[in-house]
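User: Good morning. I'm curious how protoporphyrin IX containing FE would be positioned relative to this chain. Could you predict the structure with it bound?
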Amino acid sequence: MKANTATVGMAGIAPRKNGTPPPDVPLADADLGTLEFWDQDDDHRDGAFATLRREAPISFFPTPEISGFQGGAGHWALTRFDDVHHASRHPEIFSSRPTSTALNEVPPEIAEFLGSMITLDDPRHLRLRSIVNRAFTPKVLARIEDSVRDRARSLVTAMVANHPDGQCDFVTELAGPLPLQIICDMMGIPEEDHQRIFHWTNVILGFGDPDIATDFDEFFRVSMDIGAYATALAEDRRSTPGDDLTTSLVQAELDGERLTSGEVASFFILLVVAGNETTRNAISHGVLSLSRYPDQRNDWWSSYDEVAPTAVEEIVRWASPVVYMRRTATRDTELRGVKIAAGDKLTLWYGSANRDESRFADPWTFDVRRHPNTHVGFGGGGAHFCLGANLARREITVAFEELHRQIPDITATEEPDRLQSAFIHGIKRLPVSWTPPN
Ligand code: HEM
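Assistant: Good morning! Here's the predicted structure, ligand included:
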């Protein structure tokens, strides 16, 4: 295979010197409370959060109104690593209850489907989590390693075969379908339903982006549809058990009682949404970063297995696919001298914490060998630490392994089409090219 110099030379992605801090953004423009803020590019966001960390690390912002959703009261934005870490580990003060981990309030009619253990505290949270915990341990994941690799291999092979000119949209061909197929396999969702699941989870987390959905009725309908789908699949597994997580959910007993169908449905939705809308963006941001910083790619590719563990963590730090989670104060408290009242909302900004200058040496350097790398991309530790972290790590490792093996010069050729969202650091479209095999 010859190097794809012609195509790479035409690459339209902005050149960037690794380690360059973002442009300076005045505090007045670091206003998380406006929808316009979330339309700005990554540089502006990064610059704004750098200013907040430095000048106003805990600030109060109103919640932007998104059509159909109540904004509700505003929130205290925790932008520094130490505060995100602290709040994550003190659920008795910073609770995940009562309704939502996002900023906008979910209407009560669909809250039943969009909650589950992520909006509960222990002990109920822990008991629910224990139902599926085992399936996500490294030992059990090792058993599905081959199927993850088969899926990744087939997808990259098909991507190369279906695009003999060596160009395609990376999200459509690999970053989207890989996590989708894996989580659907784990849940026991038949192949013919995968695209429906993909559409539904996109609308649930991508609502507000004009390309995905801005019509609240559609969001409502999708929430009801996925709820009905989950309930029907659960009913099926009650009578015909399978070797999948949906069966684990319907068979589980908590305190001597089975989960209600609402509980099964919301658990199911949490798993497919979380499994689908996160790793996809880590993989896409990873390809983008390796394209921007080719020396990092060369370093990784020169000893793939040795560097993979640190490279994967760095991709998650750099991408921070989940931008924030919300908590609610259970009592009056004080953080960094700021008085927070019982009932106040707080937001834990993972992407900002992951660039905290007081925590990370050279936070603006994408370094595939970064070690230590105690990022909070999967959460700040504590009860809700990402259940799927080990799965996500495997998916990212295997996806890049296949790219390295089959099309090592794959390069982003245009700036990504970014998801307009405060919650998910998403990439909708990422044009890439590679040297087609002879
Ligand atoms: C790179 C990919 C991923 C990232 C960046 C990510 C990030 C996160 C974050 C930040 C949290 C919240 C932690 C907290 O509140 O303390 C979380 C929770 C969660 N994640 Fe992930 N996640 C990823 C992949 C996955 C996958 C593949 C699954 C598979 C189902 C998954 C399932 C979950 C679940 C179920 C929770 C809620 C856990 C609980 O409430 O106890 N995640 N994730």
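The CA atoms of residues 22 and 151 lie 37 Å apart. The pocket of protoporphyrin IX containing FE is lined by residues 88, 117-118, 129, 183, 270-271, 274-275, 278-279, 282, 316, 321-322, 325, 350, 377-380, 382, 384-388, 391-392 (CB under 6 Å).
Let me know if you'd like a different ligand tried.
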